[in-house]
Amino acid sequence: MTAGLLSAPVxxxxxxxxxxxxxxxxxxxxxxxxxxxxxGVISLDYWRHFLGGGSIYLGLFWKSVxxxxxxxxxxxxxxxxxxxxxxxxVRKLKYVLLLVIIVPFLTSFLLRVLAWKVMLGDxxxxxxxxxSLHLRSPNHPIEWLLYxxxxxxxxxxxxxxxxxxxxxxxxLDNMDRSLLEASSDLGCSRxxxxxxxxxxxxxxxxxxxxxxxxxxxxxxxxTPLLVGGTSGxxxxxxxxxxxxxxxxxxxxxxLAMFLLLVVAGLMLIFGRFVQVRSVAAD
Length: 282
Hints:
Layout: H1 2-28, H2 45-51, H3 56-89, H4 94-102, H5 109-119, H6 125-132, H7 149-173, H8 177-185, H9 190-201, H10 203-218, H11 222-228, H12 235-243, H13 249-274, H14 278-281
């Protein structure tokens, strides 16, 4: 009975996840030939070139890691107060306010990114406001507001905050309130109660939110493509360009497999030592 129930999802997983990953992995070492230029000889030359000290792609990967870490930390710091307010401060309207926060993000992600592109442009809301306040000259808009690393991180932070606030809200909302009352009865201040009781109990949701942002942001390519320019170029853009413009699929496969291995390793680390899955158990 159990085997019958699991057969369909397992078959789906094998056909549309495991098989493509294995195919790309084999192609990255030359085990499969797709183009006339492919040698068909198994070799680790592409991997050695990528992992070499002078590889521009490896440097681009670390740049993406730094940007992802920055975005993840900023998003968690901004989302935690939102989750805390909804779970422990608001009583009757917490689910209504949560819905109000999430609903705008059910619209097209592409439209929201393009809206930020318009607002941050030379004639956008921010530059126009600074010009009206005489904080900049009409002919000298603030260029780093668009097509920069700052722009990419700003738009990604905006996109992820509601989805990070949700697991934090769940952790705090399921917390035993009697522990807070006991801490108050024992003479602890609100700040001490937060550091000793609230924060440790909400840590699974906090870490889950961090992972939800960090993992997909490393391979992000849509946002940098639209608002990043050359300065905001990320690792995911390199993979996209290798498979589309460059037609260097073997190098693109190496980059894609390296990213997959890093993400899998991160998930194992977080799942093993921090037990992110306990968020669902709460």
